[in-house]
Amino acid sequence: MDFKVTFQPLFIEDLERIIRQIARQNPDAARNLGERIIRTAESLSFFPERYPRVRQRPGVRRFIVGNHFKVFYRVHYPGHAVQILRCWDGRRAHHPPLP
What we know:
Blueprint: E1 4-7, H1 9-23, H2 27-42, E2 60-65, E3 69-76, E4 81-89
Parallel strand pairs: 1-4
Antiparallel strand pairs: 2-3, 3-4
């Protein structure tokens, strides 16, 4: 059974900030990165366990796009849902707080 993927408001804010930042230098690269992140997140509707758990955050998993951009998500098995929580530039000094 497929899982329903939803994007949390903090993820959307994070992604918009990252895309705006990159678009200042390279609009095409920004658009491609955004599309790649969304496509990968949406692909979690099938086999959402494919990416590793985050040791410090029980119940949270993550995937990385473009070597630096970490996307955190949570799988809810009873409801067959995946919540995309945050998108973070891994080059930043700290990790984002997760809901």
